[in-house]
Inverse folding.
């Protein structure tokens, strides 16, 4: 199964604030916020939702196709992804713009404040999926993640016109999109990904109820934080999968991307939805235990031991046969 992942490719600048953001906010002065946080740590990491997802899929051996735009400073990042099983042959390199940047501060309660510079990501709208499909011999699924908004719209419309199944995954771009754009991006999606907060925002902006949205997509996949994930389909009972026990909680950045990497890998393997969600939750747990979105390792025996403990021997036997 050939899966292309479109979305941002970025460098993350991750900082840690030892206090709580909530303690610095004055309720009646929120309209004139002017704050500066003295942080303890700075980590410069590889990131971007599409690259994060592809990295995880590469570790699981499913050979994802990364589709996005980067700058001329991408060479080292490309080599890293190539070494970890990602097909980077469809990444567009801008002649004038740097690779996108994400700057994020995390407080003691794991709340986050972030800013994103688009840079070369704005050229994602120039990428044609047909050229990608022709290069790799066809596409079975395109996951359309947070990216240049015009690029997201173009890729969605192209999937529809060419009959390519697609997953809608707006994440950070929901905040700047209006209801009409969100309706276009989700209608007809085989999978709709969001977390609980984004789920409510999608419903609020589109004016569609939960039931109406579910009728317009094949599957609605909602991540529930520490409670795992819920998968819904019309006419079926929801599937709910919990998370494995964490050994530590180091950094929540990239946890959602890791879940998607595991879930999409499960789809590529051809396992059922529940099993795919379990793989996603296991991979997400590895990421929350690590600072950075692509700094974790996947040791097969360790992964399977923890997977077995969380989900049982029958589930583990099915996954073990696919795990690279």
């Amino acid at each position: 199964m050939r899966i292309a992942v479109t979305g941002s490719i970025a460098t993350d600048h991750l900082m840690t604030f030892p206090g709580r953001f909530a303690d610095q906010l004055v309720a009646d002065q929120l309209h004139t916020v002017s704050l500066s946080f003295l942080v303890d740590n700075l980590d410069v990491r590889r990131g971007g939702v599409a690259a994060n997802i592809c990295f995880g899929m590469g570790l699981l051996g499913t050979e994802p196709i990364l589709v996005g735009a980067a700058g001329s400073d991408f060479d080292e990042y490309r080599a890293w992804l190539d070494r970890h099983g990602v097909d980077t042959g469809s990444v567009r390199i801008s002649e004038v713009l740097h690779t996108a940047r994400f700057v994020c501060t995390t407080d003691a309660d794991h709340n986050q404040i972030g800013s994103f510079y688009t840079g070369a990501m704005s050229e994602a709208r120039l990428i044609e999926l047909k050229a990608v499909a022709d290069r790799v011999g066809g596409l079975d699924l395109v996951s359309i993640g947070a990216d240049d908004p015009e690029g997201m719209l173009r890729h969605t419309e192209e999937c529809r016109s060419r009959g390519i199944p697609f997953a809608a995954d707006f994440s950070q771009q929901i905040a700047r999109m209006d209801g009409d754009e969100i309706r276009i991006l989700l209608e007809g999606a085989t999978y709709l990904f969001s977390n609980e907060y984004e789920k409510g925002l999608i419903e609020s902006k589109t004016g569609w109820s939960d039931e109406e949205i579910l009728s317009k997509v094949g599957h609605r996949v909602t991540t529930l934080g520490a409670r795992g994930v819920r998968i819904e389909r019309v006419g079926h009972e929801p599937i709910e999968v919990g998370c494995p026990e964490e050994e530590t909680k180091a950094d929540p950045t990239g946890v959602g991307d890791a879940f998607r990497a595991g879930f999409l890998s499960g789809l590529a393997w051809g396992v059922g939805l529940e099993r795919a969600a379990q793989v996603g939750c296991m991979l997400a747990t590895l990421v929350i235990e690590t600072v950075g979105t692509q700094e974790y390792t996947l040791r097969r025996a360790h992964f399977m031991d923890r997977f077995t403990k969380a989900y049982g021997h029958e589930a583990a036997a099915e996954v073990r046969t696919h795990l690279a």
Notes: DSSP finds eleven helices and 14 strands in the chain. The chain has a mean pLDDT of 94. The CA atoms of residues 80 and 248 lie 26 Å apart.
